Amino acid sequence: MAAAALALPLPLVAAALLALAAAWLWDYAVVRHLWRPRAVAAAFRAQGVRGPAYRFLSGSNGDVMRMRAEADGAALDVHDHDYLRRATPHLLAWKDKYGAPFLFWFGSQPRICLFDYESVRQILWNKSGHFVKTDAHPTILAMLGKGLVLVEGTDWVRHRRVVNPAFAMDKLKLMTATMVSCADRLIKDCEQLASNNKSGEVEVEFSKHFQELTAEVISRTAFGNSYKEGKEVFHTQKQLLALALATLLNLQLPGFKYLPTKSNRLKWTLENKVKMPLMEIIQPRLASKGSGFGDDLLGLMLEACFMTEQGERRDELTLTMDEIIDECKTFFFAGHETTSHLLTWTMFLLSVNPEWQERLREEVLRECGKANPTADMLSKLKEMTMVLLETLRLYGPVMTMIRKPISDIRLGSLSIPKGTGIVIPIPILHRDKEVWGASANEFDPLRFANGITNAAKTPQALLGFSIGPRSCIGQNFAMLEAKSVMAMILQKFSFTLSPKYVHAPTDLITLQPKFGLPIVLRPLDAS
C-alpha cells in the first residue's frame, strides 16, 4: 500500500518536468532564436536598416567563416594598406550590399555596424553607463580575466581606482630602464647573428621576437623578481588565444560551457595554469605587506588595494584575490599582445618607407646619441610619436569594439533595442576619407604633426586606444615601450623587408601578419 502511494505522484512529476522542458524549449528555441530575431529585424527594417538574413541558431556566423576563408588566400602589395577586404571581408561586403549602418547576427544576437564618428563619439564618451561591453566568449574570459577591460558600473570604478596608480606617468618612467634592458638583449642577439654572416646582414623573424620581448618586458615590470612565473602565464595565454580563435564562431548552446567537452577540459586546464603561478606571485606579497609590496606594477596595484579614496590606509583589500588575479591577467595579456603588434607593424611600415626610417634614425641619434635612451630622451621623439600614431591608425591591433545599450535607446536617427550589439569597425573608420582626407589609405605620419586632436576633421578620430572614460589605461606604457625598442633598433641597424615576406594582414582577434615579419637587418657600423 505504501509503495503504491509513493508511486502515484510519478505521473505528476513527469508532467511537471515535461511542462518545464516545454517552457524552456519554447523560450530558447522559439522566443530567443525565432521570434525575437524576426522582431528585431523588422524593427530595424522599418527604420531603413537592412542586412543578411538571420539563420536559426547560427545567425551570420556561417557567412562570416565562408567569406573569411575565401579572402584568406589573397596577398597584397607591400605598399597597399587597404587590407580590409582580406581581414574583414564580411563587413565590407555587407556595407556594399546593404548600405550603412547594417544589421547582422552573432548567433541569435543582433549586431548593428555603425560607420559615423558622431554616433561612435556618443557611445564611447557616454558617462551614464547606458552602453556596456557585450558578454565575453568563455575562452576570452579565461584568457583575459574579468579585469578593468571587462567590468562595468561600480565595479569598474573600484577596479580603476586600484589600477590607475600603477600606470601613472611618473611610475612608468621608472620602468624605462627595464624596457631598455630587455630590448638590449634582443639587440645583442641580432648583432651576434649578423657578425656570424660574411655579408654582415641577417634575416630575423620580428613578429615572434617582438612577442617574446614584450612578454619579457611585462613580466619584469609587472612581477619584478617573479618574472619567470610571469613568462609561464604568457605561454599559457597564447594557448588560450589559439583555443579562442578555434571556437569563437562556434554555436554556443545554453550550459554548453559547463560540459566536459574536449575544448572545455582544455580551457579549464589552461585557466588553472594561468591562475596558479599568479597566486604564487601574489600571496607572498600579501603576507609581507608590512615591508611593502614592491615597486613593480603588481606592487603598486596591491598598495592601492589597501588605500581608501581619501588616501588613508585600510586593513582590508579593495579587490578580492580572484579580482587581483583577473587584473594581472588583463594587464599581462594587453601589455604584451597589443604592444608586440604595434612594434611589428611599425617595423613593417619603416621597412617599406625608408625615408621615414632615416628621419626617425636622425631624430633618435640627435636626441639620444648612441646611449641607451632614458624616459626624458624618449619624450623628445616627436616624429617617432607621429609614426607610432599613424601605425595605430593603419594597423591598429584591435579591429572592432562592441557595446550594447542596457535599455532601449535613441542614437541619432536610430532606435536601438536593449541588448543589441553595436559594432564599431575601427580600421574602416580610420580610412574614412571625409574624416581623414584623400590620403586616408596612405602612410602619412605628418597628419599627426599637430597632435591627435588636429589630425583629422573630427577631433579624437584615432580609436587605436579607444576614447572617452574607458580608453586604454596602458596606452602610455605601450607608447613608452614601443619608443624604447624602436629607438634602440634604429641606433644599431638599417632594415628592409625580406623577399620572403608576404603581405597578408589577418584578424586573429588582433591584427597580425599571417606569415610573420621576416626582416633583413644590416648593422650601421657595417654600412
Quick take:
With 527 residues, this protein is an alpha+beta fold. It has helices at 2-7, 10-45, 61-71, 84-87, 89-98, 117-124, 138-144, 153-163, 169-174, 176-195, 206-223, 227-247, 262-287, 297-305, 321-352, 354-368, 375-379, 382-395, 426-429, 433-436, 475-492, and strands spanning 102-106, 109-113, 131-133, 202-205, 400-405, 409-411, 414-416, 421-425, 493-497, 505-508, 510-513, 518-523. The chain is 54% helix and 10% strand.
Structural commentary:
With 527 residues, the protein is an alpha+beta fold. Helices cover 54% and strands 10% of the residues. It has 21 helices and twelve strands. The protein has helices spanning 2-7, 10-45, 61-71, 84-87, 89-98, 117-124, 138-144, 153-163, 169-174, 176-195, 206-223, 227-247, 262-287, 297-305, 321-352, 354-368, 375-379, 382-395, 426-429, 433-436, 475-492, and strands spanning 102-106, 109-113, 131-133, 202-205, 400-405, 409-411, 414-416, 421-425, 493-497, 505-508, 510-513, 518-523. It has a five-stranded mixed β-sheet with strand order 1-2-8-5-3. Helix 12 packs across helix 15 (321-352) and helix 16 packs antiparallel against helix 18. The longest helix has 36 residues, at 10-45. It comes from Urochloa decumbens.
